[in-house]
């Protein structure tokens, strides 16, 4: 009979979950291999054999966050209305952030640097947003530079989700602020002939 596996997928999952909780609720400097291993009821050897060390474990947490957000935003269907698609992407982003608060905090809370000017990878969560913006620019409903538009939408979203996760907004206020802020951001980049119709659509909701 072979020796039982001690560093299996279950141990790996516990280590990632414990590291995620620690990174989201404590300073990064306080995370240690020994502390994560103890919280996950695993050995320090497991951290090294499964992840190569602390940096590898942190990278695994970040990869999980990126993959989860990408999965949710890339699942938003494409329609004939790129502005509706942009709003739907904002909804998906907010829903994922609210549903995965620790992963969201790890991804955008300073644990890993965020470079909005970096190259967009195939599984980058920004890719669906840039694609929808590209369709909106091609349809002449938005006017501007794609990266600038994407950053302004992301800034509004990030601010709103961060306030929600901090408990600064009650549900009704958060919902109203989300709707008005995203519409206002889209109107700010709208072509002149589209601006009024966007405002009318917002008031009709």
Describe the 3D structure.
There is one protein chain. It is built from ten helices and no strands. The chain has helices spanning 9-25, 33-39, 44-51, 54-74, 82-99, 101-108, 126-138, 146-165, 171-189, 192-204.
Distinct helical segment count: 10
Largest sheet: none
Average residue-wise pLDDT: 87
Gross geometry: elongated
Helix and strand sequence: HHHHHHHHHH
Helical residue percent band: over 70%
Would you count the extended β strands for me? 0
The first-to-last residue Cα distance is 66 Å
Low-confidence stretches: 1-5, 111-118
Strand % is under 5%
- Category from helices, strands and their pairing: mainly alpha
What gyration radius follows from the Cα positions, in whole Å? 20 Å
Can you give keywords for this protein?
single chain, 205 residues, mainly alpha, 10 helices, 0% strand, disordered N terminus
How is this fold's topology laid out?
Layout: H1 9-25, H2 33-39, H3 44-51, H4 54-74, H5 82-99, H6 101-108, H7 126-138, H8 146-165, H9 171-189, H10 192-204
Helix pairs in contact: 1-4, 1-6, 3-4, 4-5, 4-6, 5-6, 5-7, 5-8, 7-8, 8-9, 9-10
Summarize the structure.
This protein has ten helices and no strands. Helices cover 70% and strands 0% of the residues. The protein has 205 residues and is an all-alpha fold.
